[in-house]
Specification:
two-stranded antiparallel ribbon, mainly alpha, 2 strands, single chain, elongated, Arc Repressor Mutant, subunit A, 177 residues
């Protein structure tokens, strides 16, 4: 049986991790509140940290700009999928957007109650219903889509269009398995 150090070595993947020594950690604790510049160099090497920081920035702008439409990011995503795929089923939306079915049920009911989407019989599956935008839904989505495009341009104004395309391609490689 392998000892713990061997097991830990076997579990480790990727480059060796930099660790903070106990004396450095203790010194940091002793001077808490007196640090002039916060060192986030290690965090900035982590995809999750950078993706989360970027997402928080985009989402905060999205929430402000989508407030007139009363749309959250997930609502907008559902409307977008329905707009670009008339007749799509709830199951397909769940699979595409990685939404749990019970969570989507409430969203669909809410969007339907607002008169933005309609459920119609599916042409090939009698058990399923296809989702379609209503005229008010299409109008709202068209305006919201223009707003989303504008806010994306605003939050990515420090990178070139080619860099944005590369960033999106790389991020899709991370989550598309």
């Amino acid at each position: 049986m392998a000892d713990n150090s061997t097991a830990n070595t076997l579990r480790r993947t990727g480059p060796p991790r930099k660790t903070i020594s106990a004396s450095r950690a203790a010194a940091s604790a002793d001077t808490a509140g007196t640090v002039g510049t916060i060192d986030t160099a290690y965090l900035q090497t982590l995809l999750g940290y950078n993706a989360r920081r970027a997402a928080l920035t985009v989402i905060s702008v999205f929430l402000r700009r989508m407030e007139p439409y009363d749309l959250r990011p997930v609502d907008f995503s559902v409307l977008s999928v329905v707009a670009h795929n008339p007749g799509v089923t709830s199951r397909q939306i769940c699979n595409t957007l990685d939404i749990l079915p019970p969570n989507l049920v409430g969203m669909i009911k809410s969007l339907q109650k607002r008169g933005l989407i309609a459920r119609l019989p599916h042409p090939t599956d009698r058990r399923a219903q296809g989702l379609h935008l209503t005229e008010p839904g299409l109008q709202l989505y068209t305006e919201a889509q223009a707003t989303a495009t504008g806010l994306e341009q605003a939050v990515t104004d420090r990178i070139t269009p080619a860099e944005l395309q590369t960033l999106n391609e790389l991020l899709r490689k991370v989550y598309a398995r």
